[in-house]
Design a protein that fits this description.
The complex is a heterotrimer of chains A (about 725), B (about 375) and C (about 325). Chain A has about 725 residues and is α+β, with helices and mostly antiparallel strands. Chain A folds into 2 domains: about 1-10 and about 50-100 and about 495-730, Roll (Dipeptide-binding Protein, domain 3); about 105-430, Dipeptide-binding Protein, domain 1 (Alpha-Beta Complex), CATH 3.90.76. In chain A, helix 3 (about 45-65) packs antiparallel against helix 4 (about 75-90), helix 4 (about 75-90) crosses helix 17 and helix 15 packs antiparallel against helix 18 (about 620-635). A two-stranded antiparallel sheet of chain B has the order 1-2. Classes of the chains: A alpha+beta (about 725), B mainly alpha (about 375), C mainly alpha (about 325). Chains A and B meet through helix 1, helix 11, helix 12 and helix 20 of A and helix 3, helix 4 and helix 8 of B.
Chain lengths: ~725, ~375, ~325
């Protein structure tokens, strides 16, 4: 009897709970009835608010972006630098803080500087041009190879000139040599040459991956997940790629031509090499690579029904693409593809017509929407295209011959690759590593010979002592003790920024004490609109504390104080970031003629031999906040509204939280009377994503960043113009 | 009787048929057979009820778990709300929660569709569409269709997936079970020989430690300790993760599991034997002068093994389920992570959860049944009564 | 002829003999002490060394749980990166973890929470399981149905059930605290194993003579279960309870691991363990502190369970 009652009651509870759940699909958080959004409370429309916040920057940006003449690149960069300065230091809209361009101590069994190198596109993940050795690189060897590399870089042959028909060759003048007959490999030439004997070379590379690709992971036309691009960039080549100095050279294309049309449009024509599509599993030839493959790819990407993630890389540049994409996005809509500027002139020539003059267009071609696909194959596969490695055709350097989920993957060299003499590995074995393996475990795997390279992390104290500091403590991260450990400076591939939510519409609190009432929200909204308030944040946030998590020894090594990353693009040998730096210095001197010249490129900021954060300044922050307070009080905000409550999203990981707390503590210690930081901790990854990028449950966030898609400052600065790519994070 | 004499010794055809029928009916009425049949029928009923409940439970999860909300929002910006909604409906169609035209699929319909798929009748299931999912390009002629695993790369058929991954999990579990019993039984016996003696005390300490150390922590420590190529375990070159070609790499996980499961069996054996040692037949054997070891291993152990033997089919078949932690830490491509992977990935994999629940439940019921039958054979006191 | 006997005196028998009244209670009186079950239990229990150790340890534990959090200094539970990863010393008895929290105070705070939850869950599970198991074992007619229900419940993937329950409760009863959600989730299928176990034991002892006798005499079922079966089962139940406790703690850890347990920022033994086990080789105290505390609890309860099960077994009362 008792058991029956228990059973029935538990069933009843489950059922009622389920019914209750049914009625509420959990679409979104409950919004307080009174305060719908910042814009509504302030009494203006969302667009007007956007104009108010981004207007100044947008104007400067548009002026700069309008300079498209390739001869006026210097002027263009100067204008962009002005806009970037306004974005960060003029309006205080974004606070750049991290770019992974620091130094790491690494032990590796590959010869450095041989592989293609670029901070944008897919080139840097390719295994083509990677040469592996069976013992780690020693310091001497690395120094020699680096010297040979620098020498070759300085003495690069001049870029090709157009021939009489206007074609410019895309041949790689800096190609690596093939293996010699005895199997040895030589870097450089002349007196700087370094030769690695055949016995030193090995043809199998062992590396790792930490996240298993999901779903239709190899459909490179729609997919934008980085974890998947590691794999397909080795299987499918595009028109161009980057060589080891960062220059754009031909992959499937061997020459190109640029013509300007009368109406301001530009036509880029590419001629293809002979290349083949092979079956991934068997390696047999299936089709030739023809120009129509690129047309088929463009049709697929621009078809709105396919919901391609990176379609904006086509709609932003190609004539007619945006309209086609819009037409096909409508329900049952059809578009006229013949109006889109992608044409196959003949089987070996492909032509792109661009909306306006775009001198950097070739760098855009390195990305996935511009990869080819065989039309027949795509049609037969239908929705199965890219579902796994065998549902793809391969025209690249490797085929994936073995894949065990959450186990390992094996790439095998494609014998029918058009450039196979530059593929120095026969197989690549990628081992799946579970997320909570520590750095000590990974070092153990390297020492067992199970993987071929690793970075020494300060948390692995035994490894740190063995490789970096040495038993006598003489080594450091920049100059490690062990002979086979090298200090490697990476170029950052993304800049992480802090930004504000100007038009917040969702409030969710895990700790109900932090709940804001109507007035709190209104005052926060008003405070955020004040430039001086934002600048107070910019100068008061001690990002050094948070950077200590990445590099406890030398946190400033990873600090980044401008938006566009280093080594992206340069004009006459001057990197774009130097333009930004110069403009910053100009403005700083205007404000304070006694300003000491340290710039914002952190590498130059040495104070007593130690790098410092060029921006952090507690007094300055306090001054800005005080100014802001006065202005706000004059505008009607009562004095008891201060300190203004700012919500941030906490980190789920206890360790990261500790560093965040230290950073915010520095801010509130100095400026606690003006601003108070409340941290909301999400309970799981889903909630984290929801708060960070969908509901925008924050007033200030350090959650996001941006990476370059092509080699022009536009790729970064376009993100914050009106209706730019990142303005969603600002609430618009 | 008279008829037989009348016809002599000729066996007519009618007699043969009668004899066959008699033997069939005897077989049918054999109590074991009836019992098995009855058990199978009720198990089937429970299986289907279970699958229906699990399907219903999954239907109660909200829609937003089944499509990546980030992509939805991005598309909302690009294609507008209608375009984004259409994409969302497509994603939900692909997991079976909406029809192609966007209307909701009711819970009952989900359950019945799934049953239709599993029933062993030939049917055609759509598996490939054209690029816009409006036309079916290929059907799969299936007998029992368990669905496709969407959370695994390559979306294999679940039956293929299971068969592929079962091998290694089964191998590990067989080895662990065998080694566990081989070591645990003597340990339990020696502990029972002198209850309270020093061997017993050491064994108890071992057992308490086993309870106290969380298994996960133990596995992690042993993984990093045994994986080192120099050091205490250097002679074995075990490696820190499982590589199919290297047979030594399977030894660390087996060692760890055996180490942690010995105490459980040892306790059971010890308890049982201590109880038995005060019974009459043991006293009699001692009086007759048999050695202690002979008594323990030959006579008492046989009785102790009966309940153990009952669990044996369960262990072997349950081995197919695999252990989550072991496979996670040593990167073993087995079945252990299938279920948790299906539930805790970014979107729950409905078909995989349903099918795995069904398969595991079926296996456990079969092992239950086999265990009962094995007990009948092993223990002469137990008989299946006919009623 | 002797003339000693005087016939008049014999007429009054009552002078010669005093009639002893019939007193039933006194006639039943034993010189020996009457057997009281619970007194015997106590006597055997106290004599065991393991029991004394267990009681002392439990007392220490309770004192620790009450006293230690009071002595915590300001900011012991807050993360403070400046004092992170310190080895045990006079200032920080168990050292600090990777975020700078003092492990000594955090362990005790977490201990109280984990223990409380595990205790409540175990007790509820055991009570429900015993009730169901007793009825199941006693009424053989229910056997086929109950076996099917057992098959049903034990085969639902527990992770799915926890996820669903936690989701349903968050939406349907938003005011329910996470702890209550956790208790409910853990109790939803935890009782099944206990029920099966009790059912097996019940079947074994129902066939004993004294129970057969009770049934024959027509004792109502409830009385048999309470007076005959339950005391015998008590030993088994208490051992089960003491072994269930660590199981509940690790279930709580697993659930938090999958995001359906306690909130991320609560301090519990499981959370500290999770944060500390990775760097065992270089900072062993971060794992040893919570694992040691956990081992201490488990050890105490194990000893207690062992001692109690021996004490409760009437055969051992000689």
């Amino acid at each position: 009897m008792k058991k029956k009652i228990l059973f029935l009651s538990s069933v009843a509870i489950l059922a009622s709970g389920g019914l209750a759940a049914c009625s509420d699909n959990g679409e979104g958080p409950e919004v307080e009835k009174e305060f719908k959004s910042n814009a509504e409370a302030l009494g203006i429309s969302k667009d007007a608010l956007q104009e108010m916040v981004l207007g100044d920057y947008d104007e400067l940006y548009r002026k700069a972006a309008a300079i498209t003449d390739p001869a006026k690149t210097d002027e263009r960069f100067k204008a962009f630098a002005k806009a970037e300065y306004e974005l960060i230091y003029g309006s205080g809209l974004v606070i750049p803080w991290l770019a992974q361009n620091g130094t790491t101590a690494s032990v590796s069994k590959t010869i450095p500087w041989q592989a293609g190198r670029a901070s944008y596109g897919l080139t840097s993940d390719k295994f083509k041009n990677v040469v592996a050795t069976n013992a780690a690189m020693t310091k001497e060897e690395r120094a020699k190879v680096t010297a040979a590399y620098d020498d070759a870089k300085a003495n690069q042959p001049a870029p090709f000139e157009a021939d009489q028909d206007g074609w410019v060759s895309l041949a790689n003048q800096n190609a690596n040599p093939a293996f010699a007959d005895d199997g040895s490999y030589t870097v450089g030439s002349g007196e700087n040459a370094v030769t690695f004997a055949g016995t030193r070379i090995k043809k199998e590379l062992k590396t790792t991956y930490s996240k298993e690709p999901e779903k239709a992971f190899l459909n490179y036309l729609t997919n934008t997940w980085t974890y998947n691009s590691y794999h397909y960039c080795n299987m499918v080549d595009g028109l161009v790629e980057n060589d080891k100095f960062g220059n754009v050279v031909g992959a499937l294309a061997d020459k190109y031509k640029v013509e300007s049309l009368a109406d301001g449009k530009q036509v880029w024509t590419f001629h293809l090499k002979d290349a083949e599509w092979v079956d991934n599993k068997t390696g047999e030839k299936k089709y030739d690579v023809v120009a129509d493959d690129f047309v088929a790819a463009a049709e697929y990407v621009l078809n709105g029904q396919n919901a391609a993630g990176a379609a904006n890389l086509m709609t932003g540049f190609i004539d007619g693409a945006a309209k086609y994409n819009e037409d096909t996005s409508a329900e049952g809509g059809t578009g006229d593809f013949s109006k889109v500027g992608v044409k196959a002139v003949d089987s070996k020539t492909i032509q792109y017509t661009l909306i306006e003059e775009t001198p950097f267009f070739m760098t855009v071609l390195t990305y996935s929407p511009y990869l080819p696909v065989n039309r027949t194959f795509l049609n037969t596969q239908g929705s199965d295209f890219g579902k796994d490695e065998n549902k793809l055709l391969v025209n690249g350097a490797f085929r994936i011959t073995e894949h065990e989920t959450s186990g390992h993957m094996i790439y095998t060299k494609n014998d029918r690759y058009y450039d196979k003499e530059h593929v120095y590995l026969d197989t690549v074995r990628r081992q799946f590593i579970a997320g909570d393996k520590t750095s000590a475990d990974i070092r153990g795997m390297y020492e067992n010979g199970e993987i071929d390279s690793f970075s020494v992390n300060v948390k692995d104290s035994d490894g740190w002592k063995k490789y970096v500091t040495g038993p006598d403590g003489t080594g450091s991260q920049k100059n490690p003790y062990a002979s086979d450990c090298n200090a490697i400076t990476s170029f950052g591939t993304a800049t992480y920024i802090g930004y504000f939510n100007f038009n917040r519409s969702g409030w969710e609190y895990t700790n109900q004490e932090n709940n804001k009432n109507y007035n709190d929200k209104l005052y926060t909204a008003k405070a955020l609109l004040n430039k001086n308030f934002r600048k107070g944040f910019l100068y008061g946030l001690k990002v050094e504390e948070k950077l200590k998590m990445y590099s406890p020894d030398d946190p400033i090594d990873w600090c980044m104080r401008s938006y566009t990353n280093n080594e992206l693009v340069s004009c006459n040998g001057k990197d774009y970031t130097e333009y930004v730096d110069a403009y910053y210095m100009e403005q700083a001197l205007v404000e304070d003629p006694n300003f000491s010249l340290t710039g914002i490129r952190n590498k130059a900021n040495m104070v007593n031999g130690k790098a410092t954060d060029p921006i952090y300044n507690a007094e300055k922050a306090k001054a800005y906040f005080a100014k802001a307070k006065n202005e706000l009080i004059c505008a009607g905000v009562p004095a008891d509204a201060f300190p203004i409550k700012i919500d941030v999203i906490g980190d789920q990981d206890i360790e990261s939280r500790a560093y965040d707390d230290a950073m915010y503590k520095a801010l509130t210690d100095a400026c606690g009377e003006f601003v108070k930081i409340n941290s909301n901790i999400p309970q799981n990854d889903e909630q984290d994503t929801l708060w960070g990028s969908v509901v925008n449950n924050y007033d200030f966030s350090l959650w996001s960043g941006w990476g370059p898609d092509y080699a022009d400052p536009n790729t970064y600065l376009h993100t914050f113009c009106i209706n730019g790519d990142m303005v969603e994070q600002l609430g618009f | 009787m008279d008829e037989v004499i009348k016809n002599g010794n000729r066996i007519t055809f009618k007699d043969k048929v009668l004899r066959v029928f008699k033997s069939i009916s005897k077989a049918i009425h054999n109590p074991t057979f009836v019992y098995i049949l009855r058990r199978i029928v009720s198990s089937l009923f429970t299986l289907f009820l279970l699958t229906a409940i699990v399907t219903a439970l999954m239907r109660f999860l909200p829609d937003i778990k089944f499509y990546p909300i980030k992509d939805y929002n991005m598309l909302r910006g690009k294609l507008g709300p209608e375009g984004a909604d259409r994409w969302r409906d497509l994603q939900l169609y692909l997991v079976g929660r909406r029809h192609r035209d966007g209307s909701q699929v009711s819970v009952l319909e989900s359950i019945l569709t799934y049953f239709y798929w599993i029933l062993p009748i030939p049917k055609a299931v759509p598996i490939k569409w054209n690029t816009s999912y409006t036309q079916v390009k290929e059907y799969y002629q299936a007998f029992c269709y368990f669905g496709q695993a969407k959370s695994i790369s390559g979306t294999p058929y679940i039956t293929d997936l299971f068969v592929e991954k079962m091998g290694i999990s089964f191998k590990i579990s067989i080895w662990t079970t065998v080694l566990c019993y081989v070591f645990a039984i003597p340990l339990g016996v020696f502990m029972a020989k002198k209850p309270g003696g020093w061997f017993d005390k050491i064994g108890n300490v071992f057992i308490v430690l086993n309870y106290a150390i969380p298994a996960l922590v133990f596995y992690l420590l042993m993984c990093s300790w045994m994986g080192k190529s120099d050091g205490f375990w250097g002679w074995g070159q075990f490696g820190s993760f499982y590589v199919k070609e290297k047979w030594q790499s399977i030894i660390p996980p087996i060692f760890c599991v055996v180490f942690l499961s010995i105490p459980g069996v040892a306790i059971w054996i010890r308890r049982f034997m201590v109880d038995e040692l005060s019974s009459d037949y043991v006293k009699f054997a001692r009086a007759k002068g048999l050695s202690e070891n002979r008594i323990m291993f030959t006579h008492v152990l046989r009785n102790a093994c009966v309940p153990l033997v009952r669990n044996l089919p369960a262990t072997f078949i349950g081995a197919i389920v695999g252990s989550y932690y072991i496979e996670y830490i040593w990167s073993i491509p087995g079945t252990g992570r299938l279920l948790t992977g299906a539930l805790s990935g970014s979107t729950p994999d409905i078909q995989l959860v349903q099918s795995l629940t069904f398969l595991y439940a079926a296996l456990s019921m079969i092992s239950f049944l086999l265990g009962d039958i094995v007990t009948v054979f092993a223990d002469p006191r137990i008989k299946i009564l006919s009623d | 002829m002797a003339k000693d006997i005087q016939p008049e005196a014999i007429q009054n028998e009552n002078d010669l003999f005093v009639r002893v009244p019939i007193n039933e209670t006194e006639s039943e009186h034993l010189a020996a002490e009457p057997y009281s079950y619970w007194k015997s239990v106590f006597r055997v229990f106290i004599k065991k060394p393991s029991a004394i150790i267990a009681i002392v340890c439990m007392f220490l534990m309770i004192v620790g749980i009450i006293v230690v959090p009071i002595c915590a200094y300001e900011g012991a539970y807050e993360s403070n990166i400046a004092i992170a990863n310190l080895a045990p010393s006079g200032e920080h008895f168990f050292g600090t973890d990777l975020a700078g929290r003092d492990l000594f105070f955090c362990c005790f705070k977490g201990l109280s929470k984990s223990l409380f939850l595990a205790f409540i869950t175990s007790i509820i599970n055991v009570i429900i399981g015993t009730v169901v198991g007793l009825a199941w074992g006693y009424f053989r007619k229910l056997d086929p149905i109950m076996i099917e229900i057992y098959n049903l419940f034990s085969n639902i993937p527990s992770l799915l059930l926890y996820m669903l329950l936690s989701f349903v409760f968050t939406n349907a009863f938003p005011s329910m605290t996470p702890e209550l959600r956790l208790i409910f989730a853990l109790c939803s299928i935890g009782w099944i194993g206990v029920a099966l176990f009790i059912r097996n034991q019940t079947i074994i002892i129902t066939n004993r003579d004294y129970n057969v006798a009770s049934i024959t005499l027509g004792t109502p079922a409830r009385r048999i279960m309470m007076k005959n079966l339950l005391p015998y089962l008590l030993a088994v139940i208490i051992t089960e309870l003491s072994l269930m406790l660590p199981g509940m703690i690790s279930s709580e850890v697993t659930m938090s691991f999958f995001g359906v347990g306690l909130p991320v920022e609560t301090i519990s033994i499981g959370a500290i363990l999770d944060a500390g086990y990775r760097y065992f080789t270089s900072k062993p105290w971060q794992l040893l502190a919570p694992a040691g505390t956990l081992a201490f609890i488990i050890f105490t309860f194990y000893l207690l369970g062992l001692a109690l099960s021996d004490a409760l077994d009437p055969k051992k009362h000689r």
